[in-house]
Amino acid sequence: MTTLPHRPHAMKADKSIDPVETSVLRTRDGYIDIHSHVLPGIDDGPATLEESIVLCADLARQNVSHVIATPHQLNFDDHAQPALPNEKGTHANSVRLLVRQLNSELTRRGIDLTVHAGGEVRVSPDIIEALDTGLALTLCDEHRFVLIELPFDTTIPARGIVERLHSAGLGVILAHPERYTASQTNPGFLREWSHHQVMFQVNAGSIVGEYGRTVQKLALELIQSGGVHFIASDAHNATTLGRRGPQIRAAADLIRDTFGQHVVRQLLIDNPRLVVPLSEPPMPKAPFSLGLASNSQVLQSR
């Protein structure tokens, strides 16, 4: 079990960011964020283009060089998270158009960040049809990996949906497994998803305690077990605008202090590079296997 590090300074949001500063400095290898809500007016992220620019500049200042815009898709009503009123706006063509417009504006303002199209797709019986017809998007619109979200308070068996996605040639990445009620109350829940070769993406905000100590504890246990493949922001606002900011820098600092720089690099640079087409990526041996750190031992000690 992980002993939580006592690093209060790592829990604090960086309030010093100037969101419209055009001179953005980063280390040689920028982080790659595979889950964010940066597009304006399309789901529960920024309401306006200017708010999107503020959020993107915040990501760039936190050493993120590429980000996948993943608006909620197929987000039907459940008692934990109501359906979004503008769900139709997340149709693939709308996402692609907004990504092009946002990238153009970022270039015009000199903000060194590239946005890619994608979606955070709620698990649904129609998920394959939705991906095929453009109601939902794979990550980077490449039809290689899909980021899925589960209902927060409802248990869904992994086998059926994962086998269908694998049969369609898609690698499956589960968004924020540490946040689901079933993950926190039933150790076998995540073992089942791991058994079916699902990759786990943990939120940066979870790592720094934004969702509470229970979620933070599970997030760090997952990293310690070797069960996490990606850290992503799931950002909905800039850090300066309140809750659900990127938190990438604070999470990277905490992971570095707790587990080492090599873990930061694996989860924020090396593994995401196989998802984001910065160059021609090496294809995994199987549609659902990245050849990354195994997540077969997730929560064995719980």
Give a brief outline of the structure.
The chain is α/β, with parallel strands linked by helices and 302 residues long. The chain has one domain (30-273): TIM Barrel. Helices cover 34% and strands 13% of the residues.
Describe the 3D structure.
The chain has 302 residues and is α/β, with parallel strands linked by helices. It has helices at residues 49-61, 92-109, 127-133, 158-167, 181-185, 187-195, 204-207, 213-224, 248-259, 261-273, and strands at 31-36, 64-69, 72-73, 114-117, 120-122, 145-149, 171-175, 199-203, 230-232. The chain has a 6-stranded parallel beta sheet. Strand 6, helix 4 (158-167) and strand 7 (171-175) form a beta-alpha-beta unit. 50% of the residues are buried. The model is unreliable at 1-27, 77-88 and 283-302 (pLDDT under 50).
Which labels suit this protein?
302 residues; alpha/beta; TIM Barrel; six-stranded parallel beta sheet; three-stranded parallel beta sheet; 10 helices; 13% strand; globular; disordered C terminus
Number of helices: 10
Instruction: Tell me the CATH topology.
Output: TIM Barrel
Secondary-structure-based class equals alpha/beta
Mean pLDDT: 81
- What is the total tally of β strands? 9
Please, how many domains?
1
CATH H-level superfamily title? Metal-dependent hydrolases
String of helices and strands: EHEEHEEHEHEHHEHHEHH
Uncertain stretches of 5 or more adjacent residues: 1-27, 77-88, 283-302
Beta-strand content:
5-15%
End-to-end Cα distance: 8 Å
